Amino acid sequence: MARVVITNTATTSWVAPKTCTASIACWGAGGGGGSNNRTGNNAGCGAGGGAYASSDVTITKDTSYTIAIGAGGTGGNNNNNGTAGGNTHFNNNAIKGAGGAPGLRTTTGAGAGGTVANSVGTVRNAGGAGAVKVATGRGGGGGGAASSAGTGLNASTQTGGAGNNGGGTGGNGGNPGSNGNAGGAYGAGGGGTGNGNVFRGGNGNNGAIVIEYPDVIKSEVAYEFALA
Question: How many Cβ atoms sit within 10 Å of the Cβ of residue 226?
Answer without folding.
Answer: 7
